[in-house]
Amino acid sequence: MAAEAARLLANQPEYGAWAWEVHHTAKKDAPSGTLLQLIEEMQRAGFTRRIDASSNRAGANPGTHEIGFDYALCPIEPMFAMHKAVKEMMEIFMREESTNAVADRLTSFEDFNKFVGLDKAVEEEARYHIK
Description:
By secondary structure, this protein is α+β, with helices and mostly antiparallel strands. It is about 45% helix and about 20% strand. It is built from five helices and three strands; from the N terminus they run αβαββααα. The protein has a three-stranded mixed beta sheet, with helices on one face.
């Protein structure tokens, strides 16, 4: 499974990889041979970027190994997506003179209020309001 995930993400430069393990306190090698083998399988599958690895030793833990892939979303990317959505919406609105054609793609008023935290803002305003 680790090799297949590495193969699928090998050509996706925005993804980083990590490997982590925890074993019992008597375990001598760190990282363990198993974790090193997982990392080697990922590399053989074509994931050539750095794979951060860490090892923990604690208690009577029989051994747990995890691999993962991270994607850091740059702050500008959501703005690009938002710009495209607004532009498409405005083009449709100007052409149709209505938002009916895109109504199914609109966020509900309730969902938007939850997203922006309107309830909390109203509570804070009430709390600090001077009469």
